[in-house]
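Recall that a protein's primary structure is simply its ordered list of amino acids. Everything else, from secondary elements to tertiary packing, is in principle encoded there. The following example makes that idea concrete.
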Amino acid sequence: MLTRIDHVMICVPDLERGIEAYTRIGFAIYPGGAHTGRATHNAIAFQQDDYLELLSLRDRDAPVAPGSPDARLADFLARGGGFRYVALQSDDLAADVAAMRRRGVDVSDPAAGARRAPSGQELRWLAASLGAGNPLPIFFVQHLTPLAERRRQVGRAGDHPNGALRLDRVYIAVPDVGAAGEIYGRVLGMPVPKIQRGAVIKAEMTVFDLGPTGLTVAQPAEPGPAAEALARRGPGPFQVLYRTRSMDAAARWMEGHGLPPPVRGVRNTGEQAMLVGPEQACGAYIGFVGPA
């Protein structure tokens, strides 16, 4: 079954600059190494059970095979990059793929993937992606390397200056939340939740709960982050929300590292939240919620 949001993928033209940007936001983020058989490399910021991935091409001038995943990434980076995919974790990917196909979902077979960390550690997984019949910005992963071993790939796993503890929600901008909710519900094999108002993102939204995390499909209702993201990039993921130990401590870190004070707001749950804009976060909105 699909158990949680595993990680978010933010694609950046220059990995070192991406690392610098997310360090200023307060993430302990480390080079992750190169992907086996690909032209890509990444950086990783681990929380408790999930992580943030910055992905880039090792050499943007090197030729890539037309139509390949690397060629599609090069096209995405040429348009500026940003928040591209949400990875959903499975505990039995073959069974989940079979179940999706019974629901009429166009999805690939599970394929093996690997990455060698700078330490020499090899991390392995299975992944499946949606086909042209369901062009959603999500894919599915089953880790073959245990979590404790994966956490050892970084120097500090879950100990971030901004206090980030875990991913809480991701937000995907769509022009029609009702129609999109039906599609996501069929792909995920879940009933479509009721529509509610997102007070901070200024959108009508429906939230699919996957374990402790929420996959949110959001239609702009008025000017705000969702409307800005949809106008700037079209439909797709635009925000990650993290639980933090202290929003004030996170804000002090950011301001001490040259960022403007994060925008503050109140969620429809009544909780205080704050938001780092896409100009500081490589094209994504990064939100924080938690105690002051």
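The longest helix spans residues 177-188. The chain is about 25% helix and 40% strand.
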